[in-house]
Structures are given as C-alpha cells and as structure tokens.
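1st attempt posting a full record on here, be nice pls
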Amino acid sequence: MATPLTGRVAVITGGSRGVAETLRAQGAVCAICDRGNAAPHARDRERPHDDLVMTLDLRDPMAVDVFATAVEERYGRVDILVTSATATTAAPFERVSARAERALIEDNFLQVTGLIRRMLPLMGDGSAIVNLVQDEPCHALDAAVKAAVESLSGSLAVELAPRGISVMAVTVEQAYQLWWSGIPSV
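the predicted structure (as tokens):
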C-alpha cells in the first residue's frame, strides 16, 4: 500500500531514531548518519536492504563527503534532508567556556550548513530540507544558535524556492506532525 512518502529518500542526521521510524512508516527509505553508534538504527529497520546507516562525525567535511557520496551512489538523490541542531550548553552564558561555545556553534550551525551545502546537488524540485531545532532553549547561547538556524532556514527557503526546494526549521514534535499529515509533499 502506498503511503505519503513511498519511495522517497530521506537523509537523517544524529540522534534521530524516532524521526527515521516515522519516515519509514510513511514509506521513505532512510540514509542515517550519527556521530555515536548508528547501529541501533540498523536493528530497528523493517526493510534492512533499503536503508543506509553510517557512523561518522558531520563536523568533519571529509566525513560529510563520504556520506554524501554513499547516498548518491545508493539512491542518486535526496528528497528529504533532516538535520539536527538540538545540542545544548545546559549552562548560563557566563559559565560557558569559549571552547564549549565554539563546539555548540559547530554542532548546531556549521554541521547543518556543511551538510546542506553538500546535499543540495542531490536535491531537486519537490524536495525539502527540515532543520530540527531545540524545543525551548533555556540559555542565551542555545537561543542564539536556534535563532541562527531559524534565520538560515527562512533565508534558504527564499533562495531555494525557484529550484522547488522547501526549507523549514521546526521542533521534533512539529516535524512529526508535518510528516503524519503528509507535509512536506515531496
């Protein structure tokens, strides 16, 4: 039985087991990468021959290229790109070191832009970029990074609209609501 995302290719980054399960339930095949152990995703797969699962660090441009090349060779395209910008400092501004601040920016912004930049050549008319952001950041730096991803998403939505690529920044809960209602339609 066909579902809203049957046959669509979804690329999903870090900490997103529930996202992958949801997209699979809607018929998508998934290419998943995670900095930690990506193997738990493999155990959850109902269609093990469809998904690509890799453990890698998206902060490393060479790792991003390896992953993108594997996606291109296996599927030839990306219909939905889901990035995760949900790491937090868990501390007030004055207690965050400069090093921790740079790590937060790298984790939540630079790896998002790097992955989008690398996957764009694989995306065409009707595809979507979904940037997952923190639900309600409780500290200044978390809020600043969330605002940066939201601003990036809004600007990219305008920039990529002529190519038929939609872009949005949503919380994980909002993303589930979108996918179960059949949006984004790709």
